[in-house]
Structures are given as structure tokens and as C-alpha cells.
Amino acid sequence: MNRCRNPVGQITPFRLGVGLLITLLQTTTLAQTVGRPIPPQALRGTLEITQPPNVLLNGKPDRLSPGARIRSDNNLLILSGTLVGRTLAVRYVREPHGQIHDVWILTATEAQ
Chain centroid to CA 27: how far? Predict the structure, then answer.
């Protein structure tokens, strides 16, 4: 009886490694090409979080909505309590009741 050591459908460590490498390269390339999804209707301003949910927006008192989302300059969600006392260049969207709901902290290049 002739036994084949490496049938066509069998996954070898080499094939597994090549497949993982290709997947890794594709996801890295995809991550570099995806931009920040800031909507065009987002307004621009300076935000200072005084005592969450109270903020100063362009120097005037304002309020974050319940469930407000703040995205850092690398597009990660961050908590408002970690930004107390900092003045940040941002773009923001208000909810229907007028409170600030979505905030994007701008990078240095986006702020220019």
C-alpha cells in the first residue's frame, strides 16, 4: 500500500504559517487605510471637561448627554473623567435634545 505523507488537503505547519502571515499583512494594511469616521455635519470647537457631565464648550457651559462617546486622537473610546481640566480641540455632534453626544479629539494635523 502506498501512503502519501502529505495529502493535498492536509494543513501543515508551513501552510498554517503562510496563511497566518497573509492574514496579518491584510489586516495591517486595512487598519492603515481606514480613516476616522467624523461626519461632515460635526461642528468644531474647544472642549474642557470641568466635572462630568458638565463641560465648557468654546468657553461656555454645556453638558454631555447620557451615553456620550468621546473618541481620542487614535479613535479609541475614552471616559470623560480622564480628561478633567484639559482643553482640547474637538469636533462634536449634538443629540436631538441639544446635549453633546459624539466628540472626536483632533490630532495636531486635523486641528490645523
Answer: 16
